[in-house]
Amino acid sequence: MTAPSAFARELGLRYPIVQGPMNGASPPALAVAVSNAGALGSCAAALFSPAVILERVQQIRAQTTAPFNINLFLLDEQHPDLAELKRAQHLLRPFREALGLSEPPIPTQFAENNRDQIAALLEAAPPVASFT
């Protein structure tokens, strides 16, 4: 193996590997396992409320003393108008019908408030934070 990078050395990683933070596929247990193995474990938090971000960081900290990463999206708030939402429902109708799915209600929230997520991230102060 090649010599560790400055990034790996700074964090005290055994391996210069960063586990990719994948929404829906990077639970705390995976981040803990990767970090405990000597690489940088990551937990994707873009879909989490601020309270869940704080909880996940606590879960990871309870299981490892190694560095880990929390990843967020950087997004503008989304506020589609009702006409856009109705058009999307109309375009998706044939797929729902083919799958035997009923039409869902129009959502009232489209993403977590990014500013609140970042505030939670600052409060939790994970060893590493990354952004998409």
Describe the structure.
Helix 2 runs parallel beside helix 3 and helix 3 (50-63) packs parallel to helix 5. The protein starts with 5 loop residues before the first helix and ends with a strand. The protein contains five helices and three strands; from the N terminus they run H-H-E-H-E-H-H-E. With 132 residues, it is mainly alpha-helical. Strands 1-2-3 form a three-stranded parallel sheet.
Residues in β-strands, percent: 5-15%
Shape: elongated
Q: Give me the number of helical elements.
A: 5
Structural class: mainly alpha
Q: How far apart, in Å, are the first and last alpha carbons?
A: 29 Å
Give the spatial strand order of the biggest sheet.
Answer: 1-2-3
- Return the string of H and E elements: HHEHEHHE
The largest β sheet comes out as: 3 strands, parallel
Low-confidence stretches: none
Could you report the average pLDDT, rounded to the nearest whole number? 92
Question: How large is the radius of gyration?
Answer: 19 Å
Total beta strand runs? 3
